Amino acid sequence: MSTFARSAMRPTALPSLATIASRLRLKQLRLLIALDNHGSLHKAADEIAISQPGATKALREIEDILGMSLFERQPKGLVANELGQCVTRYARLIYSDLEHLHAEITAIAQGHGGHLAVGVIMGAIPLLTRALTALREQQPHLSVEIIENTSAALLPLLDEGRIDVALCRCGVSRRPGAYDCMALEMEPLAVVAARSHRLAGASALTLADLAGLPWMAYPVNTPMRRTLERELGDAGIDVPRYPLETASAFATLTMLQDTPDLVAVVPRAVAEFGERFGMLVQLPVPMRALDDPYGVITRSGAHLSPAARLLIASLQAHCVEPLPDGSENDGENDSEDGSADR
User: Cα Rg for the chain, rounded, in angstroms?
Assistant: First the structure.
């Protein structure tokens, strides 16, 4: 039976862990990742430096080991089925852990501080900055990669092992139990504008005073966006039909500078940073804070490197927005429909 004609095949008996561990090879895992990236056996074979017949044989061996088909041939190429997506996700995790192993032992051997990849939402950037500044005083040779995005975009990177730690909310996931979540800070919001904005010198404003102005907003179905729309709705103001949307703090600051009448809602910590360096002003408009804190998110049960543990300790030490008494974040209190993604 052809490897690609078995999409309806069902396993007669699931292999034991010992069988999988003894028969599955790292090159086979690399093939799964390459196939998922390219959807082509030819391109996947080129990526891992084997022949196309060798790639076909390796895929057949993987499916024989697991007793099930993992990919289906479609007009756009090979596409992982549900089982294939699951196996490929774990292949990425295994290979990522090996990459981290290589990076750590290289760093130890060369006397360096290792590598750390951190995902962060906009509102957590000031806290991360303080924590990393302190950490790098202790570990000056630590290499740190910072990726800013929404929670919904960061959690898959955590799943794939592409980041070690995320500062975000885990309740957006359909699998909140897949993460260890440590709440850090509440997230008050502020309305901001360029220093040249016509309302910049006002002593008191309401949202009604902003009616008709263009908005820079976080993407739809995020807590910050929903908070803005709720506040505008409560004030009897129509939600802007064509707002500028971004999850980037830098893009927000830049657009405010270049568009004098633009206003935006951002985390208060970001607003205070921009104000301190003369990049924007906070408008005196009352805004409710987001309903739940963000925190440190890691894969449940994952081994954390010494650098990751030091970063988490530094984050805890540099929080400035205390949580209410009894506040916890177990990853299940963001939104009932799981649509929040900050």
Answer: 24
For β-strands 215-217 and 263-267, DSSP reports them as parallel
Give the residue-averaged pLDDT of 265-269.
Answer: 92
Q: Count the Cβ atoms, other than its own, within 10 Å of residue 127.
A: 22
**Buried-state track 173-211, b at ≥16 Cβ within 10 A, e below 16:** beebebbbbebbbbbbbbbbbbeebebeeeeeeebeebe
**203 Cβ contact partners less than 8 Å away, ≥ 6 residues apart:** 284
Does position 297 have pLDDT exceeding 50, yes or no? yes
Q: Buried (b) or exposed (e) across 220-249, using 16+ Cβ within 10 A?
A: ebbbbbbbbbebbeeeebeebeebeebbeb
The neighbouring-strand residues paired with 281 are: 193
Calpha distance 151→259 (Å, rounded) = 28
In the numeric block, the tokens 């739809």 are attached to 220
Helices assigned H by DSSP within the chain: 17-23, 26-38, 41-47, 52-66, 82-110, 125-138, 151-159, 223-234, 249-258, 268-276, 306-317
CA distance 317 to 312: 9
Query: CA-CA distance, 323 to 327, in Å (whole number)?
Result: 6
Ramachandran angles phi, psi of 149, nearest 5°: -170, -170
Parallel, antiparallel or unpaired: strands 189-193 and 244-245? unpaired
Instruction: Please report the pLDDT score of residue 99 as a whole number.
Output: 79
